[in-house]
Write a structure and sequence with these properties.
By secondary structure, this protein is an alpha/beta fold. The chain has 2 domains: 204 residues, UDP-n-acetylglucosamine1-carboxyvinyl-transferase, Chain; 209 residues, Enolpyruvate transferase domain (UDP-n-acetylglucosamine1-carboxyvinyl-transferase, Chain, Alpha-beta prism). The chain is built from 14 helices and 24 strands. The strands form 6 sheets. It has a 4-stranded mixed β-sheet, covered by helices on one side.
Length: 421
């Protein structure tokens, strides 16, 4: 098992290329199950989660090939509908094969998903969406069993206790595109990743309107064809490098990103004293003044993303003053707090809020990653900390950040991998 080692207090400068969005690419790959023709996905990131999805597609009877950032998926004669525990249990996003399997094959057996430990993440909205289209569902031996002679369009409300769900919206949308009649999804997730999936489905021949709004309308078609598609840039990776520039008093140009996907993050970083400007081919990020505290509340898109909460907390630990970070998507998503405190941060939890009192500097220390975005937060803290930081369990990081140490070293960081003892 690898660990990352960082020698901090190096000012980052230069340009970095952002990879394709993991959270868009995964459901797009799952959507290839809806077609009997070849699909070509471009700008796919080289990540552990993408590799897991490709193994899952192979287990479902699809032929996959990867050439750089281009993935080709073709169906074979041996199509299957069982998504096994061994694969699905390692990655929560694997559950997004449920919609295309029931949509295309009218049957599916999908293991309950696994992935990061960031608090309860029920799949009730997934089941609600699929059952509303006419599928019979049952739970047996840890598997979701879905059967349908025919799917029918329906009016579906996908509101949950903490708002809309990206994967539930994706699953319902993928099942509905081959359902008979008209489907209306209300309180649909509006994230750019949902929009990207819908754009891919439209290229395949689906009839979808309203994606990017809380009201998605779908008219079912008899079949979908193959398509080529380029995945959008990863907005969370973009936001992480924005904070890398701010926390190191750096000057970074982030290539390939779309600023309109990060409005809430840009707003809070600007409030904190970070200068963000669009330049040819990307975004330039640097401090405009001394950092100021900023209160953050995570909300569904276009609100501040929960996947940027931990990284923003790292920045606030070295920002003079008091910041309050409130988590309204996953209220238990604070496992990184204890690790940041090991580095000298002063963070106190009060329910679903973290009270952060900024200090002059963090101190390098051995810390442990608990999930994907917590890993990124610890990397950012290590970049700013005095001395050496050792981050164990970085396999979490490899699920969502492509070649992060190479990209950071190119910007002037000193970061490398070692085998854990």
């Amino acid at each position: 098992m690898d660990k990352l080692v960082i020698e901090g207090t190096r000012r980052l400068k230069g340009a970095v290329q952002v990879s394709g969005a993991k959270n868009a690419c995964l459901p797009i790959l799952a959507a290839t199950l809806l077609s009997d023709e070849k699909c070509v996905i471009r700008n796919a990131p080289a990540l552990r989660d993408i590799a897991t999805m490709l193994r899952l597609l192979k287990a479902l009877g699809m032929k996959t090939t990867a050439d750089g950032d281009i993935i080709t998926v073709e169906p074979t004669k041996g199509r299957k509908y069982l998504a096994p525990y061994k694969l699905v249990s390692t990655m929560r996003a694997s559950v997004c094969v449920l919609g295309p399997l029931i949509g295309k094959m009218r049957q599916a057996e999908v293991s309950f998903p696994g992935g990061c430990i960031i608090g309860p993440r029920p799949i009730d909205l997934h089941l609600k969406g699929i059952s509303s289209l006419g599928a019979d569902l049952s739970i047996k031996k840890g598997y979701i069993i879905a059967r349908a002679k025919e799917l029918h369009g329906s009016r579906i409300y996908l509101g949950g206790h903490f708002g809309s769900s990206v994967l539930a919206t994706a699953n319902t949308m993928m099942a509905a595109v081959l359902a008979k009649g008209h489907t209306l999804i209300e309180n649909a997730a509006c994230e750019p990743e949902v929009q990207d999936l819908a754009n891919f489905l439209v290229r395949m021949g689906a009839k979808i309107k309203g994606h990017g709004t809380p009201r998605i309308e779908i008219t079912g078609v008899k079949k979908l064809g193959g398509a080529e598609h380029t995945v959008i840039a990863d907005r969370i990776e973009t936001g992480t490098y924005m904070i890398a520039a701010a926390i190191t008093d750096g000057d970074i140009t982030i290539k390939g990103s779309r600023l309109e996907h990060l409005t809430a993050v840009v707003d809070k970083l600007t409030e904190a004293g970070v200068g963000i400007t669009e330049v040819k081919g990307g975004i330039r990020v640097r401090r405009k003044r001394n950092l100021s505290p900023a209160d953050v509340t995570t909300l569904p898109y276009p609100g501040f993303p929960t996947d940027m909460q931990a990284q923003m907390m790292s920045l606030m630990t070295v920002t003079k003053g008091i910041s309050v970070i409130t988590e309204k998507i996953y209220p238990d998503r604070f496992i990184h707090v204890s690790e940041l405190n090991r580095m000298g941060a002063e963070i106190h939890l009060e329910g679903a809020s973290a009270i952060v009192k900024g200090i002059k500097a963090l101190s390098g220390a051995p810390v442990m990653a608990s999930d994907l975005r917590a890993s990124a937060a610890l990397v950012l803290a290590g970049l700013a900390a005095e001395g050496r930081t050792d981050i164990s369990r970085v396999y979490h990081l490899d699920r969502g950040y492509e070649k992060i140490e190479q990209k950071l070293n190119k910007l002037g960081a000193k970061i490398w991998r070692e085998k854990e003892e």
